[in-house]
Design a protein that fits this description.
The complex is a heterodimer of chains A (166) and B (75). Chain A is mainly alpha-helical. Helix content of chain A is 65%, strand content 4%. Chain A has a two-stranded antiparallel sheet. Chain A is globular, with a radius of gyration of 16 Å. The termini of chain B are far apart. Chain B has 75 residues and is mainly α. Helices cover 37% and strands 0% of the residues of chain B. Chain B is elongated and about 55 Å long. At the A-B interface, α1, α2, α4, α5 and α7 of A face α2 and α3 of B.
Chain lengths: 166, 75
């Protein structure tokens, strides 16, 4: 059943902030993050006929968001390195010049994580998806998500410790 | 349990509690979620819903370009 205009407005109100935070953590730049969120919502409206009632809206939007992020990386020619089972972002440590003084060691620490760990962690923690929803979005087993989130937190602690020492 | 310092509450940043040992999962999750929304963000994305309301119902009815901070489609 397609989303009505009223449902779409509610969807934006309910999910746009979490989508933005997830996009920002994935991309590290507030302009790119907002553009990707707008593209995601535009795609959601265009594809509203394919929305399955009863499906988690956040997971549906996160699936679109992830595709838009990958599309953007490819479009702007961001340097990516193909790893064993995914893409590694080679330039995740960029600073955001328009973040109004918002400096965040967490963003730099995230840049040290392999993409497969980073996106699993971000979908669960920032996107607030369940582990099972994250597994469905990424097309991987539930156990893999649980393992990746656990390893991502450990790696994040190591990265934060390293940043604190510098 | 880790919490934001007084200064970090003011500017929205979390400071890693390195001096007090390893940050726990709760602290890490809170720090990851601490991302300020850009000024006017909700107003701009709400314009997408307005665009949907003005659509014919056949097409998407939304601006093709991202909406800039002044609320207009970006060139």
């Amino acid at each position: 059943m397609a989303l009505s205009q009223g449902q779409f407005a509610e969807l934006i109100h309910e999910h746009a902030p979490a989508l933005y935070r997830t996009a920002y953590r994935m991309m590290g730049n507030c302009h790119d993050a907002e553009d990707v969120v707008q593209e995601t919502l535009r795609s959601a409206w265009t594809c509203r006929g394919r929305f399955e009632e009863g499906r988690c809206q956040r997971a549906w939007l996160a699936t679109i968001l992830r595709r838009r992020v990958i599309d953007r990386w490819r479009r702007v020619g961001r340097r990516m390195i193909l790893s064993g089972d995914g893409w590694l972002d080679a330039e995740a440590n960029e600073t955001d010049p328009v973040a109004d003084g918002f400096t965040d060691e967490m963003q730099r620490a995230l840049g040290g994580l392999p993409l497969e760990l980073r996106e699993s962690l971000l979908l669960v923690v920032v996107g607030e998806l369940t582990h099972q929803e994250t597994a469905n979005v990424l097309g991987i087993p539930l156990g893999t998500v649980l393992s990746r989130v656990c390893r991502a937190r450990e790696r994040l602690r190591i990265e934060l410790r390293a940043l604190a020492i510098r | 349990m880790y919490s934001k310092s007084k200064s970090s509450r003011l500017d929205g940043r979390f400071e890693a509690p390195v001096s007090r040992g390893e940050p726990g999962d709760h602290w890490l999750d809170g720090a990851l979620r601490t991302v300020p929304l850009p000024e006017g963000f909700l107003r701009r994305v709400s314009l997408l819903a307005d665009g949907a309301a003005n659509s014919s119902g056949r097409g998407d009815g939304l601006a093709e370009q991202p909406i800039a901070r002044d609320g207009r489609p970006r060139a």
